[in-house]
UniProtKB/TrEMBL annotation:
Keywords: Metal-binding, Oxidoreductase, Zinc. SMART domains: PKS_ER (SM00829). It holds the Pfam family ADH_N. It comes from Actinacidiphila acidipaludis. InterPro entries: ADH-like_C, ADH-like_N, ADH_Zn_CS, ER, GroES-like_sf, NAD(P)-bd_dom_sf. This is Alcohol dehydrogenase catalytic domain-containing protein. Residues 7-342 form the Enoyl reductase (ER) domain.
Length: 358
């Protein structure tokens, strides 16, 4: 098969790779119908995730068809169309029993495209298939469903739920990339009084308005705007969705006393925690890796057309255009890319071509 293989920091190639095979009774082999590129993949390529070994097939998001299952798989069968979760829970360890799947100690957690071969390929082996795969109706387009592999659960769980958004809150989302936009959309589940999006890129701020942001601001405008809209108190909830020291520190300056700061961004460098300023402000700061425990709920909302997804997909490619897709996604400030989706050129409305989606 063909796959996107990591060659070490700064190096990757779409090349021949060994076909995946069942290794455990709980495994499934999935033929990839659609996949996408995550900001975490860019962090891997930049060397920010050093435990990814060279030779790993990247990617942790996909929609596909089950072609083979291990003897222990009970819930799915060959021929099923499925959503591949970015987290693979064993379902039995102490953390999985608490639905904290990201911290799985039974051989799972975030393993696809991290410690084992991932989804940016023609086929992928998915461990713990009964827990890691979600049945997907044929009527749900792959280009929408693949956004529920990672970004929507991440924005919702690590941003909105960890941030404890409540009715009437002022919510600030710093970083209007795909995960930040998902946080903006799902924050409205809890009826905040306003959601403010902060970014450096005008196109992303415009996208934030389409996803439900009530106000937008550049970084330099953000602190005065939040102060003005909250009478100088600060935001009830601030969500960091960038992963840079400067963006984290900006968030700490905009959250009100007694407020919540939820860190979603993947950090590759130390960030300063100014406890000399924060210790007395009764803040709650939460970090997290997505557990994907909310995926069934979000999938139900998507099936009922109650989850905005289509506007997040800006570019469509065939699988063989993986290297071109990475270039477009990595230069998002120039290309306007939010999510790029790659897949089979023959599948329904996922008749893919390079270039912006229409």
């Amino acid at each position: 098969m063909k796959a996107l293989v990591f060659g070490g920091p700064g190096r990757s190639a779409w090349q021949d790779a060994r076909d995946p095979a069942l290794q455990d009774a709980s495994d499934a082999i999935v033929r990839v119908e659609a996949t996408t590129i995550c900001g975490t993949d860019l962090h891997i390529l930049a060397g920010d995730v050093p435990d990814v070994p060279p030779g790993t097939v990247l990617g942790h998001e996909a929609v596909g068809e089950v072609v083979e299952t291990g003897s222990g798989v009970r819930r799915i069968r060959p021929g099923d169309r499925v959503l591949v979760s970015c987290i693979s829970p064993c379902g039995h360890c102490p953390f999985c029993r608490e639905s904290m799947y990201s911290q799985c100690r039974g051989g799972g957690g975030w393993i696809l495209g991290h410690t084992i071969d991932g989804t940016q390929a023609e086929y992928v082996r998915v461990p713990f298939a009964d827990m890691s795969l979600h049945s997907l109706p044929e009527a749900v387009p792959a280009r929408d469903a693949v956004l529920l592999s990672d970004i929507f659960p991440t924005g919702y769980e690590v941003g909105v739920l960890n941030g404890r958004v409540r009715p009437g809150d002022t919510v600030v989302v710093v970083g209007a990339g795909p995960v930040g936009l998902a946080a903006i959309a799902t924050a409205h589940f809890f009826s905040p009084s306003r959601v403010i999006a902060v970014d450096l890129v005008a196109a992303r701020l415009e996208a934030a308005k389409h996803m439900g942001a009530d106000a937008i601001a550049t970084v330099s405008e953000s602190e005065p705007l939040v102060a003005d809209l909250t009478g100088g108190l600060g935001a009830d909830v601030v969500i960091e969705a960038v992963g840079l020291p400067a963006s984290f520190e900006l968030c700490t300056r905009m959250v009100r006393p007694g407020g919540h700061l939820a860190n979603v961004g993947v950090h590759g460098q130390p960030a300063m925690l100014h406890l000399e300023q924060l210790w007395s402000r009764n803040l709650t700061i939460r970090t997290g890796l997505v557990d994907t425990s909310s995926t069934p709920t979000l999938l139900g909302m998507l099936t009922d057309r109650r989850l905005p997804t289509a506007s997040l997909v800006t570019h469509l490619f065939e699988l063989g255009q993986m290297e071109e897709a990475y270039d477009v996604f990595a230069r998002a400030a120039d290309t306007g890319a939010l999510k790029v989706v790659l897949g089979e050129p023959s599948h329904d409305e996922l008749t893919l071509r390079a270039g912006p989606a229409v």
